[in-house]
Amino acid sequence: MRLSRYFLPVLKETPAEAQIASHRLMLRAGMIKQASAGIYSWLPLGLKVLRNIERIVNEEQERAGHVPLLMPTLQGADLWRESGRYDAYGEEMLRIKDRQGREMLYGPTNEEMITDIFRSYVSSYKDLPLTLYHIQWKFRDEMRPRFGVMRGREFLMKDGYNFDLDYEAAMVAYDRHMVSYLRTYERMGLQAIPMRADSGPIGGEDTHEFLVLAETGESEVFYDSAILDLKLADRAVDYDDAAQLASIRSEWTTPYARTDETHDEGVFAEVPEERRRTSRGIEVGQIFYFGTKYSEPLGAMVANEKGERVPVHMGSHGIGVSRLLGAIIEASHDDKGIIWPEGVTPFHVGIVNLRQGDAACDAACAEIEAQVAAKGLEPLYDDRDERAGAKFATMDLIGLPWRITVGPRGIAAGKVELTSRRTGESEEMTVEEAVTRLA
Ligand code: ATP
Ligand code: MG
Ligand code: MG
Ligand code: MG
């Protein structure tokens, strides 16, 4: 992509309404534009990162054996009356009437709808286990939408639902979700800690939230610092191996880690003092087991091996896809701008031409562009007729992991400069060497 043809409406001024770094940076980097309170347009750069996050989520879900589908944003009220949640959900639910006077709602979550899909087609244990998921916009009429995409009213969520014959099988699904979530966040360059949480209005017995530590997080968290050393890295995970899944779950859930809702001072006191941490965190996901809470009222039954009809055991599992942009930026930025982890970066490398219109510089930039693309990576070439300082400031703000700078003096010596956004270190080398170094 060439910047002269792109749409990157970078702001010079820091927007006054933004209270936290990620919100400020997303506005300044031209990633989002507020449409109404808590509702955003995704401008091209923001959309690219959102799509990258979705891609990682999809890949990890499919790797775990979960099956994608897509349910609508608008739902009829009737299903929610069957589950008893239409009245119980409260003010966060946006209720709408169509022209026939039928009551509809903009889905805040999809337990009812997925259970209806399940009961329409599945009636035997032989079709289990089954986990269906989608990535779809949700609407929750939050009392205080704030911090940009972090607490929006319209937001993108991955929500998945497992259907299993009994408690034991549903726990395997729980572990599978925990492990696939750990992998998902790691691939985004994030440390998200599973913490024992409270089930809230979705209701349930077993639940963990995944939290990214950040001063600006809305949750208060308490944890044993030993949990920070845990990494899946390139461990081979076999999603059909229930024992391995359980052992990974227990590895992550043994060190103390709880949100304020479930925090217990007495248990926390047993953690060695030097490892006791209190901090704030951003909730980027949550997994729940809730048993037959929806399958019973909605009649989602299957025949078991003895031919008896039993309600399926379910759980639901969510990832805050749009919130993740804010969380990643909170965890990875400096005073110049965003620092994207390689896994989600909108472009892999920025090319800065210091002398636009100079035949040798222009040719070298075009050559770099072609070589980067040939590697399957995406460059953003700043080919505008702008001062070097302005070009560098834009690249620093939008946070691409690498920058290749091309100037007349270097080119005369056959060299360009490769700069790491994270360390700020620059090195002179040939075009080929620079391209080889890119991830
Ligand atoms: P919160 O406690 O922040 O209100 P929640 O517990 O109500 O979130 P869940 O029902 O667990 O949310 O939804 C799954 C995920 O969706 C959350 O972990 C979070 O990452 C994301 N999410 C929830 N509400 C919002 C929102 N208003 N804006 C952006 N993302 C959200
Ligand atoms: Mg909420
Ligand atoms: Mg919550
Ligand atoms: Mg939650």
Structure, described:
The protein has 439 residues and is an alpha+beta fold. The protein is 32% helix and 28% strand. It has 14 helices and 23 strands. Helix 1 packs across helix 10 and helix 6 packs across helix 7. Adenosine-5'-triphosphate (ATP) binds at residues 109, 140, 142, 151-152, 155, 157, 200, 283-286, 318, 320, 322-323. Catalyzes the attachment of proline to tRNA(Pro) in a two-step reaction: proline is first activated by ATP to form Pro-AMP and then transferred to the acceptor end of tRNA(Pro). It is found in: Cytoplasm. Belongs to the class-II aminoacyl-tRNA synthetase family. ProS type 2 subfamily. Its main location: cytoplasm.
Q: Helix amount, in percent?
A: 25-40%
Mean pLDDT: 96
Count of DSSP-assigned helices = 14
Bound heterogens, unique: adenosine-5'-triphosphate, magnesium ion
Number of DSSP-assigned strands: 23
Q: How far do the termini sit from each other?
A: 18 Å
* Structural class by secondary-structure content: alpha+beta
Relative strand content: 25-35%
Function: Catalyzes the attachment of proline to tRNA(Pro) in a two-step reaction: proline is first activated by ATP to form Pro-AMP and then transferred to the acceptor end of tRNA(Pro).
Main location: cytoplasm
Catalytic activity: tRNA(Pro) + L-proline + ATP = L-prolyl-tRNA(Pro) + AMP + diphosphate
GO molecular function: ATP binding; proline-tRNA ligase activity
List the helices and strands and how they pair.
Blueprint: H1 21-28, E1 32-36, E2 39-42, H2 44-63, E3 67-68, E4 74-76, H3 77-83, H4 85-88, E5 94-97, E6 103-106, H5 111-121, E7 130-139, E8 154-164, H6 167-187, E9 192-196, E10 206-213, E11 219-224, H7 242-253, E12 257-259, H8 265-268, E13 276-291, H9 295-298, E14 301-303, E15 309-311, E16 313-320, H10 321-331, E17 333-334, E18 337-338, E19 349-353, H11 359-374, E20 379-382, H12 388-398, E21 402-406, H13 408-412, E22 416-420, E23 426-429, H14 431-437
Parallel strand pairs: 3-7, 19-20, 19-21
Antiparallel strand pairs: 1-2, 4-6, 5-6, 7-8, 8-16, 9-10, 10-13, 11-12, 11-13, 13-16, 14-15, 17-18, 21-22, 22-23
Helix pairs in contact: 1-10, 2-6, 2-10, 6-7
Bound molecules: adenosine-5'-triphosphate and magnesium ion (3 copies).
Residues 209, 283, 286 line the site of one magnesium ion (MG).
